[in-house]
Amino acid sequence: MNYIQLFIRKFKKNKLFTLLNLFGLTIGLSAFIYMNSYIHFERSFENFNPSADRVYRVTSQKTQNNEIQERKSCAPVILKEHLLATHGEIEKAARVHIIDAKRLIIRINGDNGDFETYVENIGHHAEKDFFELFGTSLIEGNSETALDGPNKVVLTKSTAAKYFGEDNPIGKSIIITDDFEMEYEVTGVVNDVPANSHFQYNLLISFDTFVKQRPHWRWEAWDWDYFHTYIRVNKNVNPVDLEQGINSSIAIAASDAYKERGYTMSFELQNIVDIHLNSNLGRELNTNGNGDFLIYLEIIAYFILILA
């Protein structure tokens, strides 16, 4: 009570000075709270994934004619099969491929011959173990089969609502035009991607569709390195040891390809928790944050708090 009375007396004597102090304190605390919330969000990426500490993205760097090229966030198309066949420490693996077309045209045919058209600015192919690796579960459909086989598509909850309203989309057909025009069966609906995920998407087309569309491409090539490869390792696996083992086994498996085309490749394991703040590689799936900037921002936030 005495403090309140003291405050009132001082306020009456120095109204302007007290108001300025209160205004400065309010602004300072507000700025600190806002900045601290932003910092907390930036550091929360992938925390929704229960096995995030065991999930890695395999990055690659090519050296051609003694010239070291940019390290990429993606890897050769054949890498996934090689890893599963030669490294028992790896439980699951899945590839993600950015669809080459700059936009996708989605057509939903109605019962009366009419149709609705939507445009998606980017799309991805993904494999069946994608959902387990990324810690997401399907609301509708079977995660084991939703992306297993060609001409299948999984929609996020908001995308399904945009296309089909309140109707259950499972089993319905949509036509997607990218470089090809094909009919797809909606085989799954997944919750909208958390904002604190380094990989954002509205729909996923089965990777088997990509293979079906291009049967004559070099699916066993080591130099076709535009595929994001994610793996989940067993518990207590040392990622440094695994990384060394991966590079050693690939050096043997790809030796003929290296000699024929005059290049070599090195690979690194990147934990998905580290991607958002510590990765700025070629062909990133999204624009990432900056861990160094976050440290400076945190210093500024506490400096403002002290001043306030």
How is this structure best described in words?
This protein is of the alpha+beta class. 37% of the residues lie in helices and 26% in strands. Strands 1, 2, 3, 4, 5, 6, 7, 8, 9, 10, 11, 12 and 13 form a 13-stranded mixed sheet that branches. A hairpin with a 2-residue loop joins strand 1 and strand 2.
Name the helix and strand elements from N-terminus to C-terminus, one letter apiece.
HHEEHEEEEHEEHEEEHEHHEHH
- Alpha carbon gyration radius: 25 Å
The global form is globular
Helix/strand structural class: alpha+beta
Biggest sheet character: 13 strands, mixed
Strand portion, in percent?
Answer: 25-35%
Question: Could you give the distance between the termini?
Answer: 24 Å
Low-confidence segments, given as residue ranges, are: none
Helix segment tally = 10
Using DSSP, what is the number of strands? 13
Helix content: 25-40%
| Average pLDDT metric | 91
Short structural description:
This protein has ten helices and 13 strands. By secondary structure, the protein is an alpha+beta fold.
Descriptive terms for the model:
308 residues, alpha+beta, 13-stranded mixed sheet, 10 helices, 26% strand
